[in-house]
Amino acid sequence: MKTLVVGASSNPGRYSFKATQMLLANGHEVALLGKEKGQIAGYTIKTDQLPLEDVDTITMYVAPQNQSNLYDYLLGLKPRRIIFNPGTENDAFEEKAKKQGVIVEEACTLVLLSTRQF
Question: Where is the CoA-binding domain positioned along the sequence (predicted)?
Fold first, then answer.
């Protein structure tokens, strides 16, 4: 099972970069989707909405106004849960996800990992 980091960035100052590194350090498999190609710890940031299998968790690092073109793709991956990190909360997307049985959390991935609640 893997975690898809949406809004992944190869910029070490970005929270998506830090979350990816922390996910890997805690033994989680990751897939990365961003607006610009790059790499984090040897993993390639994809810019295309490619098919993925075994996505357990999606962690969002994309502002709500930039999420609508991702709804169908992300829900089509059939994740168990979506984490909306601070600043990414989106009532419309959260409701769509809940209607499909997806667990929705408004939380910080870094905090969840740090406190072993991930």
Answer: 3-112
